[in-house]
Amino acid sequence: GRWTDALDQFDAATQAQLTYSEAWREKGIVENRLAQKQNTPLNTNPAPGKTSLRRAVEPNGDDFDAQAALGGVLRRAGRFEEALKAYASSTAISGGHPYPLLNELKLRAITRGRLDINGPQKLALARAARVRELQVKEDPPYDKPWSFFDLAEIRLYQGRPEEFIELAEKGVEHSEENSQIKTFLSTLELLHPAAAELPGLTKGRALLKSYLDA
Prior knowledge:
By secondary structure, the protein is mainly α. Helices cover about 70% and strands about 0% of the residues.
């Protein structure tokens, strides 16, 4: 959590080796996180962290983490079409990793005004669900609360609203700070244009908000 010190180290690493893509990736992530913590604008041009993440992607196009992180920076900057491209690239490179896949679907909803889940994406969702199902059953659950939140979102897309709400509540129970709940809620807001296609979305959002308002 010592973000400024971390940035100093990543700065040093990128200066020592200009093609060190992993260091550029982490530097970009920290730059954006610092901007969030300092409440500075995230929609500047370039957005905080974007330049470093571009440097990470250029020499190493196979780094799906860098592509996904770039998507997050662009999403928070409100540049949804650019973010969608970055997430779609990350999903393809990773073979359907849950993080970029779920963000790609949300960005498609906000940019296209509807859900557009094709056959390969349905298969990728089923595979992602199996991974997250195992993780939430571990003791303690692995990657909490995100494993619960991701599985909840997958169930929402699969037309299982009761499970969506149940898993979202479990994610809340395993959250260590309100910012994690806020992050999940804010990403669900991107699905608003497709709310009619997603039974349970409105109720689930209201439930999450009630925990933050308590």
